[in-house]
Design a protein that fits this description.
single chain, alpha+beta, 27% helix, 10-stranded mixed β-sheet
Length: 495
């Protein structure tokens, strides 16, 4: 007899075997070396601290020189690998919908002067708790979130931001491709709930909502506390001196409670971690767009109406001061959004979905600190892209092996049920699961290392050095102004 639990294990075994077979087919050059490199990352004892040290792992049957050679001369069919990752089982929220989170994380390379296409990456906490720019490669990730308290996500795509690219345009194209692959794989069908996209305050939510308006996607974004939105205009009476109809109504200033008015929806929820959570929502608020930056070529500026949510919690688990969180939920274009205002139940689902967005931080920490995403000292950005997708493929195997892993805990760790195992605990037992999974990589062929440069002969071809890309040519110039700054500047207002 096969129980329900055994049937689930059988499905997980099949998914893991299928993914490993398809992964090897996606490796078009140095396939065996790249495949064994991903296995070495999964089967290494402890965190990955050095790329050549992975050659000492038993699952990697090649020498240490094959590691960097595989990343430098290997090839990965990324488009096919994206399709394979999207076809795997997808985590969903409690109501069955797909919730995607987007964020940018950086591979810092501050001292790598011979590395091209570096950008000043935004970092915090380096130095005296200041926001400073460090040269590196920023990557935009799209992951699928699941419900409940968990450190698991499903990375679906990663794109390196090239110098001079616009974050909103790259993210919109990335999300459009991800949603198309999910629809092709059958994870979303007509009639299903819309896909939610959750993002932090660093994104232009209005721009993304406009670029994705033709997809079954709804945007939920956090806004800065110094923003200003507009209400719908009041009734307009035509007359000889009235002018054209107004497009914007009164202001909703985040920092001025007198401009808020009575909220349309108010909910109070008791939580275990945050105490009493109070959410207040105001419907039909939109940002006032101007013909600058990304909207410079837009013939007619749209009215992007949404619901603004202010979330106040009683306490934070860390003990820090609890600050209010402003969330903007895109509901439609102008008058089309009148019947799509969220009810109290939807308001609670929205701010809870935003809290789930922080699960992506656990994924970034695992990729960097455990799987060694930022460990290799690569010079070619394309080699960095190949290594990034190998890490994503390794993490996907951990996610598929999650129902099969046993708890190999340390003596000082608490026992955890199988459904509560973290990705690091699943990785401890992956070596045992690999023995029962297909390994299409062939045995290495005997070879000898090359002679290299003769001793005593200097290098007559020095490596080219590259400058760090900055937004403007005057960014590093120090400008002196004779105008005295005011002691009480006016608050910043954008909208």
């Amino acid at each position: 007899m096969i129980s329900v639990h055994d049937a689930g294990r059988g499905s997980a075994v099949g998914d893991l075997a299928t993914f490993r077979t398809e992964l090897h087919r996606c490796l078009s050059a140095r396939a065996d070396a790249l495949f064994e490199l991903a296995d070495a990352v999964l089967c290494a004892d402890g965190p990955v601290r050095s790329l050549p040290a992975l050659s000492l792992v038993a699952e990697h049957r090649r020498g240490h020189g094959a590691l960097y050679d595989a990343l430098g001369a290997g090839r990965i069919d990324v488009e096919r690998l994206r399709t394979v990752v999207a076809s795997m089982p997808m985590p969903r929220a409690a109501d069955g919908r797909i919730v995607l989170a987007v964020d940018v994380t950086c591979w810092l390379r501050p001292e790598a002067h011979t590395v091209p296409e570096r950008i000043l990456c935004h970092t915090y906490g380096r130095g005296k708790d200041q926001h400073i720019g460090v040269p590196g490669w920023p990557y935009s990730f799209v992951v699928a979130l699941e419900s409940g308290r968990s450190s698991w996500t499903a990375p679906l795509d990663a794109v390196r931001l090239a110098p001079g690219t616009e974050l909103a345009a790259v993210t919109a194209e990335q999300l459009r491709a991800v949603v198309d692959r999910l629809i092709t794989a059958g994870h979303w069908q007509p009639g299903d709930p819309a896909v939610w996209v959750v993002m932090d305050a660093g994104y232009d939510a209005a721009r993304l909502a406009w670029l994705l308006r033709d997809l079954p996607v709804r945007v939920l974004a956090r806004m800065r506390s110094d923003r200003v939105l507009r209400r719908p205009p009041g009734p307009w009476i035509p007359g000889p001196k009235c002018g054209r109809p107004p497009r914007h109504g009164s202001e909703f200033i985040f920092g001025d409670p007198a401009s808020w008015g009575t909220p349309d929806v108010t909910t109070v929820t008791e939580t275990r971690l945050y105490g009493t959570a109070t959410a207040r929502a105001w419907h039909r608020l939109h940002p006032r767009l101007t013909r600058r930056a990304a909207w410079a070529d837009c013939p007619e500026l749209p009215i992007l109406e949404g619901t603004l949510i202010r979330l106040d919690v009683q306490r934070l688990p860390s003990g820090a001061t609890a600050k209010p969180v402003w969330l903007w939920w895109f509901t439609g274009l102008g008058h089309q959004s009148g019947g799509d205002n969220p009810d109290p139940t939807m308001i609670d689902l929205l701010w809870q979905a935003f809290l789930r967005r922080f699960d992506i931080e656990h994924t970034f920490r695992l990729l960097k600190q455990t799987l060694g995403w930022c460990v290799p000292k690569l010079r070619d950005p394309h080699a960095a892209d190949r290594w990034t997708w190998l890490i994503i493929a390794a993490y996907t195997q951990l996610r598929l092996a999650r129902p099969l892993a046993s708890d190999l805990r340390r003596p000082w760790e608490r026992p955890a049920p199988p459904e509560r195992l973290t990705p690091a605990r699943v990785r401890r037992g992956f070596r045992h699961l690999r023995a029962n999974s297909p390994c299409p990589a062939g045995a290495p062929k005997p070879t000898r290392p090359g002679p290299g440069r003769p001793p005593g002969r200097p290098n007559r071809h020095p490596t080219r050095r590259y400058d760090v890309h900055i937004a403007t040519s005057n960014a590093t110039r120090k400008t002196t102004s004779s105008k005295k700054k005011s002691a009480n500047p006016r608050p910043r207002r954008t909208g």
